[in-house]
Amino acid sequence: MARNTFRIDEELDAPFQWGQLGRAVRYMGKYAKNIATVFVITVASTLLGLLVPLLTQRAIDVYIPAKDIESLLALGGVMLLIIAFCAFCARWRYRLNNRTGQGIIRDIRSDLYAHLQKLPFEYYDSRPAGKIFVRVVNYVNAVADFLSSGLVNAILELLSMVFMVFYMLYISPPLTLVILSGLPLFVAYIFITKPRQRRAFRLFNNKSSNMTAYLSENINGVRVTQSFTREEYNLGIFASLQKDTRDNYMKAVRITHSIWPVSALTSWLVVAAMYIVAAAGIRSGDGHMTVGTVIAMAGFAWRFWWPVQNLGNIYNSLITAASYLERIFQVMDEPVTVSDVPNAYELPAINGIVTFLNVDFSYEPGVPVLKNVTFEVNQGDSIALVGPTGAGKSTVINLLSRFYNKDSGGIYIDGHDINEVTLASLRRQLGVMLQDTFIFSGDIMENIRYGRLDASDEECIEAAKAVRADEFIRRLPQGYLTAVHERGDGLSAGQRQLLSFARTLLSRPRVLILDEATSSIDTQTEKLVQDGIAALMKGRTSFIVAHRLSTIRSCTRILYISDGEIAESGSHDELIAKRGLYWHLYMSQLQA
Ligand SMILES: Nc1ncnc2c1ncn2[C@@H]1O[C@H](COP(=O)(O)OP(=O)(O)O)[C@@H](O)[C@H]1O
Ligand SMILES: [Mg+2]
Question: What is the pTM of this model?
Answer without folding.
Answer: 0.81
